Amino acid sequence: MKQYIFTIILTAAITFCLSWGVWRLSLKYKLYPGIRERDVHKNPTPRLGGIAMFIGVVVTFAVSSQHPYFALFWADPWPIVAILGATLLIVVVGVLDDLIDLDWMIKLGAQFLAAGIIAWFGKLQILSLPIGGMTVWSSWVSFTLTVFAIVIVMNAVNFIDGLDGLVAGVVLIANIVFFAYSYLLLRDTGSSTYAHLASFIAAVLIGVCIGFLPLNWSPAKLFMGDGGALMLGLLMATSAVAITGALTPSAINPDSPDGFGRSQILGAFIPILLPIVVVLLPLLDFGMAVVRRMGAGKSPFSPDRKHLHHRMLDMGHSDRDAVLIFYAWTAVVSLAVLIMYIGTTADWPGLYLAGIAFGLVGAAACLVVTFLPSRRNVRRLAPEVVP
Question: Where can this protein be found (predicted)?
Fold first, then answer.
């Protein structure tokens, strides 16, 4: 565990220093766009934080290559080379979009290319499905599922990048839970080491978000831009795909004597369900945006001001309150499923039920807070309504 703690601290320190440098240089050379109609912030703010975040990721990967503890996943360096190459591609395209506003088809094509690099050259693909321990029946099906999963998560994370500290905080919480899950999964599957690529990527993402948040917290001095948001989504999806390699068909088969969930209904599904749940809110926003825009005869990637965080602002929440509510939703949903997973693998039905209860109570509390904004915030938006 101490190796992962070192990874988090190192990544956070590098990212913070580089983010501060990018912020200062952006201000000096006026590398920031004007205010767009859909923007929430009022002052022009640099959007090049993704550059600092990417360099932080690369440096940490380079350091890990010299550490004996991580030698296992460096024994075959091609998956890491593919991940970093795909990440470089998506950051370059994202930064260009932040500076000159690329056509959405170019961005989408780059996303599919980056996902294809990881799935094809990196050989990181979804191999098992939680349906009776089913393996994916075709290499092309596995490749296609993986590419689409990565592209969807990339866009889902990017779509919620609209408020100060929102994406960095949501990704931070999600990856803390995912790191705990991947660490426990390696233990439960009898792995001889905890040095796994999925856990390492999650630790790197935790460090990146910790290092970037001080400059991105409201009022933000620096935005991560499309380059940073797409990078976070790409790496999150890659770590989720990578962890499926630790899942044998028997492990997710409820009929197998070695499988999970012999006494719980959802037990066999949790190992694959949790990586999806940690990005549930971004996925929900992404799905709603695609349906809304296509229903209006527009491109699914045409920007608008109707995302979930925009709707929360219209309901009367302040920027910070809306961000904190997103944090709460992410924590409640992901922690509930993690608790259920622990209860399942430890064969503790009580803990499994506690996870369900925590999720229901937490969701109810989040609903109340979401739909009942404070009188102070309602008065700020419409003083004539609240005397």
Answer: Cell membrane
